[in-house]
Each structure stands twice: as structure tokens, then as C-alpha cells.
Amino acid sequence: MTDEQPNSDAPPRKQSREARRTQLIEATIAAIAVHGYSRITLTEVARTAGLSHGLVNFHFETKEKLLGETLIYLYDEYRQNWESYLAAAGPSPAAQLDALLRADFDPSICTQGRLAAWCSFWSETQGRPLYQERCGANDEKYNSGMQEIVARLLAESSYPGNPTLVARVIRLTSDGIWLDMMTLNAPYPPAEGLATLYACVAAFFPRHFGESGLLQRMKS
Amino acid sequence: MTDEQPNSDAPPRKQSREARRTQLIEATIAAIAVHGYSRITLTEVARTAGLSHGLVNFHFETKEKLLGETLIYLYDEYRQNWESYLAAAGPSPAAQLDALLRADFDPSICTQGRLAAWCSFWSETQGRPLYQERCGANDEKYNSGMQEIVARLLAESSYPGNPTLVARVIRLTSDGIWLDMMTLNAPYPPAEGLATLYACVAAFFPRHFGESGLLQRMKS
Amino acid sequence: MTDEQPNSDAPPRKQSREARRTQLIEATIAAIAVHGYSRITLTEVARTAGLSHGLVNFHFETKEKLLGETLIYLYDEYRQNWESYLAAAGPSPAAQLDALLRADFDPSICTQGRLAAWCSFWSETQGRPLYQERCGANDEKYNSGMQEIVARLLAESSYPGNPTLVARVIRLTSDGIWLDMMTLNAPYPPAEGLATLYACVAAFFPRHFGESGLLQRMKS
Amino acid sequence: MTDEQPNSDAPPRKQSREARRTQLIEATIAAIAVHGYSRITLTEVARTAGLSHGLVNFHFETKEKLLGETLIYLYDEYRQNWESYLAAAGPSPAAQLDALLRADFDPSICTQGRLAAWCSFWSETQGRPLYQERCGANDEKYNSGMQEIVARLLAESSYPGNPTLVARVIRLTSDGIWLDMMTLNAPYPPAEGLATLYACVAAFFPRHFGESGLLQRMKS
DNA sequence: GATGAATGAGCCTTCATTCAT
DNA sequence: GATGAATGAAGGCTCATTCAT
User: How many domains does chain C have?
Assistant: First the structure.
């Protein structure tokens, strides 16, 4: 993940501050993926990063701060992903909704390890100040964006649904599929996850979506 | 929960084995609701129960066994609730689905403390052997029951959906609402949760459900 | 070990004080044989005896007293054994020494379980006040008896040994064989133990002992 | 044991890994000498070493590993002692046997504290996997060495003894004297212990040994 | 007499944090 | 910057002892 100085065999004695922090955060994510949020230790993180125990505290002062910054890091990555999907989607609400749905299944996000870390983090952090403080605003942004798209789509459709409730159902289904993929003993493949999600939106917007995705129409 | 001698102010020195175990399990649930699954300590459980530390180990031997039995206790309570709802629903698939949906919002289940404990337990236990061992079979039963009801309902409807996917969307929405009620900073009231759930099923079965619930038809 | 009242299937509700104490002491010996002196618990003793936990304290007040009385019990058994051997030996010092040697290999003493308990007890108790207080005097008696016999035997022999040292060598060899039988991975059989002991005394008293035991002489 | 900076009164905050481990092992030996093997606690060991509780686990991970390494340490010390005695003894079997006997009474080994620790360790560890695993092979080496020397000596003598039994008697006597010195209320001095040992071997090899030791012969 | 629930002290172990080098 | 030894608080567990029934 980091490639640097000429002297390559020994661990680089000096690293830019940011590179070290990123290295430690990535190690934290990896450790969470393996052991779960509440079981990781600083020793484990340091060993995963191939660094010394004390360095963790040097860079992050406390364990809680490390975890907090890891959460932000993970969350930013997530947000940037759906924002870029959204930006690429154009003005059509159907295309925008489709973009949001597909964003969560992007290969860079929907990785084994990433997923494990993210879900573990999410489930053990939800409802605690740490999470609300840092991700509450982002969630809000995601949710209101989703809701606005849904409202526009409902206006286009004949479906007489409440935008708040419909947007919520879509969000819950999307989140739930991620949880399923992590917690089920024999999880279904991502493709089936996406199909499930489309089954949900197709029920609300049958003119725009089918179980296999966004319907391509001649004239919109 | 305890009924005994006139000298009532002091905690009774002796209790039947079962009563004490139940008392400790209830204290465990309360402690989980407050601190979360991975943060509770035996000391905390004992203090919540107003008993000594050693007594917990006397009755449950290890912390893990205590948590395991608590999980079973909680899960049995949950299962008995939806089973009795289902039993009262009669043969119609729409009524049966409605029963399953309303079951999760029964006042005896959908309590502040109960909800907190259950969600914390559920989210931190899912995917671990402990959970699969004890609740996997029950979950299976719930899911297959749900799926069968949905299949019958789809057959009655004109809706061309995949029963597996549709049943999954409904389950994820239902579970997600519980999580919302626990983890959101400003959660919506249970009534709105139920409305959300009906918004979901109404999308799939508009002839049977509306956003306010099961549609009463002339002739069934 | 004890068989009593008419009502035979239920554990006899009332036992004579002494019978209960003996029952508990025997259970203690058995538990020590299995787990070792420093690992036994009162719960284990009670379970071995088939009695309730609290009864142990009722009869012995503290664990230490139970162990102390068990030591006395075991020691008395041991002492009575060699005393009866000695009494049966007649006046000849060679026969008396032979009696002392054979006494330790009497089947009633040299049992698997007895041996285990005795050695475990002995090795973890030696040098502590508990042991010296209760068994010191007996040991003294045994040792001085042995020494006196050896002295008479040396007087009969041409061997110019110091009775104290010779008696000590015999005692150490005898004790050591017991330890060997307990601690060796592949211990030799009791018969070889006895042969070893005779090899020892034969070295000191070749006219009286051979490696197979006391030499029977025409005229003594 | 530690030699360092001018600021000498405070315990040095940092020590080389090996030095600390040795310091903790020595503290363990001291604690065993005082309290006995099965009674020591890590707290006691730490206090004896003047260090904190947690440091013990930092260096040895578990109590059992600490005891295991202490056993090895003690045993190596013991083995090196008799091996160096043996190496200095020359080829004569009588001199070699004499070396083995005297080795156990070397002042560096036969110390008050050392003796106490060793005997406590030995008597409570014998027959347990821990001991057999680590010292079984060494014991074997010692015993077979002793037996071979005895066999050669018997060949030289007119004494018709079984080498296995004779070597065993000598070993038991030697071990027993150590136990005596530890467990007796009024133990005899080491010199008398050695005399006892010589009384034993003199009985088997009167031409080579007297009660005061190896007989110096004109021509060998 | 007898039972077993209840208590609490003490142990081993883990681990975030500190700090000398 | 970086290391890893050192500390100490806290948790789970064991178990002798007490005591209501």
C-alpha cells in the first residue's frame, strides 16, 4: 500500500506523518475484519502494520482516537464512492437512484475484508456518540439525497407512495443486504444481493426498474 | 417476579434455582441494553441484580454460558410471540403475513429495554458460532415460513415476483426498522415503523395491503 | 464403605458422627489420590463422598482441619501396620528389621490409591507445621525403633557401621522406593522395590540378608 | 546481578530482556523456597523481584510458562554442576562415583534457598507432564551414567550385587538426604549428609570407600 | 443433622497507557 | 521519530466459608 525510500529491506525509519497514519488505519481495518471491533488490541494493530507497539500511541494518542479516525477514513471512502457514482449518473432520478444502488456493490467497496470491517464497525458503533458525531451528518446527507430522488421518481410514476417511507425501505434493504453478506452462514453472492435490491425498487417503480436493474427506455 | 416472605426489604437469601437464574438473565438483558453486548461485565450484571459477583458463576459457571442462556431466553420469547400471532391468524396467507409483521411490534416485545438488548445482542452475535448454534434453526424456521406465505400470496396476486427475493426484502425491512429504532438519534415512533413495513408489503401486494395495513375485503 | 439403616436406597439421613467423618476422610484421600494435595476442593471431596458441600464444614469446620485429620488417619493406619508387623516378629533383631521392611509393602498399605494419596500428602506437607505437629512424634518413634534394631544387628555382625547412618540409609531407601513407585513414568513392580530394599540391607548385613530377603539360618 | 548507571537507588526502568527474565526466575526460585511450589502467586514473585505484577506476564505470558522455565533453569544449573564434577574425575569408576556423590554437596548447589526451592519443585512436580517433558531425559542420563559407573565398580570388586539395584539404592539415598535436609525439623549438617552417603557406598564397595569418603590407595 | 444458595477475597490474565532509551 | 519494557487498573474465575431453610 505504501511504496517509498531507496533503502527497501529495512522498515523505513522515517515516514511522512500521513503515510504512517494511513498505514496504521489500514492495519486497524484489517484487524477489525479479522477479530471484530470489540476484540482488537493495539498490539494486534501494531503487529498487523509491522510496526512497534508504542508507535500507535505516538500517532493517535489513545485507542479511541485511532478508532474514531478509522471510522472517518472508512466513512469518507464510502461517501466518496457513492458521490462519484451519483455525479456520473446525470439528471434523471431513475438513473440517480440506480447509481446509488450500484455504488454499494462497487468492487472497491464490496470486498471481503472491507465489508467485514465496515459491518463490524457499524454494528458496534451505531447509536454511540462516536458514530453519531462523525457520521451522523453524512448519513443525513445520504438519506436526504435518496429521499429527494425517490420523491422525484414518485412524481414521475403513478405510484402513490410516501417518499419518506419508500426511501427508508430502500435504505433498509440495502443496508440489510450488506449485513446478510457478512453474517449469514451461507451468504448469497453479491449479484443476488443486487437482484434483491432491484426486486425492492422494482416493486415501487415498475416502470423504471426490473429485477435485473434499470429499464432502458427509448424515450424518457 | 419474586413473591415471598413478610420480611421483604432485604434480598431473600434463598431462592429457587430457576428464579435466581431468571433474575440473573433479566439483569443481563438490562445490562446489555445499557452498555452493549461487548462491554458488560459480570460485576455489572451482579450489581444490576443486586447480588454478589460469585453467584453469577455459581449459577452459570462462565460468562459465556450466561450470555448463551440469555440469548436462548430472549430468542424463545421472540419466537413464542410470533408463533402465537401466526396461530391466531387463520389460513389466509395475507392474514398470516400481516400477523408476522405485527408480531414484531407487540408491546411486550417492542419495549425500550427489550429492543436495546435484543438489537445489541443480535448485531454483535450474528455470524458467531454462539448465535448460529442456538438460533440458526429458529431463524430458518421463521424465514421459510415467511417465504412460503409470500409464495402463496404471490400466487394469489398478479405480481410476478421471486418469492425468495420478496420475502428477503420484507425481512430486511422488518429487521432494519428495529435497528433504526435503536440506533437513530431521533427515531421515529413504532407506529411509523409499522407504516414503513406496510409501505414495503403494499408495494408487492397492493391488492392485500395498504400503507395502513391489511386491507379488509368483502369476501375472503 | 459403610452399610447401615434399613432404608437403603436414599442416602442415610442420619449417620453416627464417626461414620460420617470417616466417610469424608476416605473421600478426601481418594480426591487427593486423583488430584493431588494442593488441587483438591471441598466441593470435590463432597461429591466423592456423595454428600452435600456444606456437610464438610459442618463436620470439620475448616478445610485445614479436614486435611489435618486426614493426615492423622492415614498416619495411624501406617503406624498400626508396622507395629503389628513388629509385634509378630519376635525378639530377633534381624527378624524385626525384616518385619519393618516388609510392612511397607503390605497389600493393605501398598495400594495404588493409598500410595498416591500418601505420597502426595507427604511430599506437600513435609516440613510444614501441620505435619511436624502431628506426625513428628510418630516418625521419631519409627526412627528410633529402627535405629535400635540396627544397632543390635551391627553388634551381632562384624560390620563396623555407625547405627545412626545405617538406619538412615535404610529409611531413605525405603521411603525413596515409595516415591519411585509413584513418580516414575515406568515404575518397577513392588517385588523389585522390595528386592532393592533387600539389596540395601544385604550390603550392611550380609550374614542376615540376601537380595531375596532374610536368610533363614539353622541356628539363630 | 545488575550493574549500571550512576543513578542506582531506583530500580532501573529498562533492562535487557534476558537480564529481566533471569531476575524474575531468581525471584520465582526465592518465592518457591519460602512458600512452596503450589502456594506461590505471581504477585508474590513480582514483589520479591521488586517489579510490577504485569511485567511477569509480559516476559513469560503465563504462570505455567514461568514455572516451566524456572524448572529448566534450576535443572540446567544442577546438571552442569555434576557434569563438571564428573569431567574432573578422571577415568577411574571409583573417582567418578565419588565425584557424583560430592557434586550434590557443592556449596553453590547445596544452599539453604536453592535446596528449598529445588526440593519443593522436585517433590511437587515429579510425575507431572511438566517435569517429565523437560527433565526426564536428563534424569535418564544421570541414572544411566550412575548405573554404568556402578557396574564397572562391581566388576572391580568382589561384591556380587545387581548394578541396577545398587545404583538405585545410592540414588535414593542421595535424593533422600536432600529431602531430609529440607524437611527435618532439626536436620543434620551437610557434612553428616555426605557421611551418610559414604556409609551407603562403603557398604557396597568397602575396598574403595569408607565412611569418610574415597579411600586413597597407593597404586590404582 | 443436612442442604445448597450466597458471599467475598484472591488469583491469573489482558491490555491501554506511559516513558526511558 | 521509533522502540519495547514497564505499570496498573479491571475483568473472569475459583473456592473456602457462611448461613437461611
Answer: 1
